[in-house]
Structure formats: structure tokens, C-alpha cells
Amino acid sequence: MILLDTHVLVWSQREPRKLSRLAEAAIRRARASRSLAVSVITVVELASLMNRGRIRTAGTMEGAIRQLLEEVEVLPLSLEAAINTSHFPIDSLPDPMDRMIVATAQLHEVPLVTADERIINCAWIRTIW
Asked: Are 113 and 6 in contact (CB under 8 A)?
């Protein structure tokens, strides 16, 4: 299983040319084995981005989100992951949504596919880019 960061989920379906070759290959393998996942916080982030017009939708927002999540497992928030965010230096990873996504990847012991340099530079998380 691999966990996709929010932007990677969107790019993988709408702008695949933005993906690195390594990310694209990892996503292709995970899709074939039905082992793509996102944190439920990604759904919150998608809704926020759509509400602000940063991601355009055709039809309803709910329909657009459901379409992005086809063939993707949505991992729930957990108390353990939320508590684990307290271990991350705030200056390295200030965004609470990013912190929960990283903590979810850690909890499930899976790599996070992300282009976010702040996350890539964190020594405590395995990333693919």
C-alpha cells in the first residue's frame, strides 16, 4: 500500500504529467494491486480546495470527490495518529493537514507519495517522489 498526498491524488487523475516517473510507477503498481490509499483528511482538503476554486469541478462537489476517490481506500483518522503529530517539529511541518497525512502514513507503515519538499525533507517519513 502507498498513501497519496492530496495534490498527488489530484494530479494522478487530472494532470499525470506533473508526477515524477518514480511516483507514476508506484501509483501504477499500487493501482494494479488495489493498494492506493489516502487519509480521510485528504477529503477535507479536497472540499476546501474545491470551495475556494483551486480545484474545478464538473457537477457537484460530492460527485467530483467521489470520482477522485474511485479505487482508492480512505483511511480513517485515529487518536494514535493525531497524538503522533505532536512529535513533529512545528517549524518543519506547520500545516495540520500535512501533519495528519504524514502521521497516517507512519501509523500504517506505508510510504507517502508527495512532491511537498517540506515533507520529503522530513527524516521521520518514507516518501516517494
From this structure: no
Nearest Cα to Cα of residue 64 among 77, 76, 51: 51
Q: For the domain 2-128, what is the CATH code?
A: 3.40.50.1010
Grid cell 511537498 is found at 116
pLDDT digits (tens, 9 = 90+) for 7-54: 999 999 999 999 999 999 999 999 999 999 999 999 999 999 999 999
pLDDT in tens, 108-119: 999 999 999 999
Smallest Cα–Cα separation from 4: which of 80, 66, 13, 79?
Answer: 13
Domain ranges within the chain, ordered by starting residue: 2-128
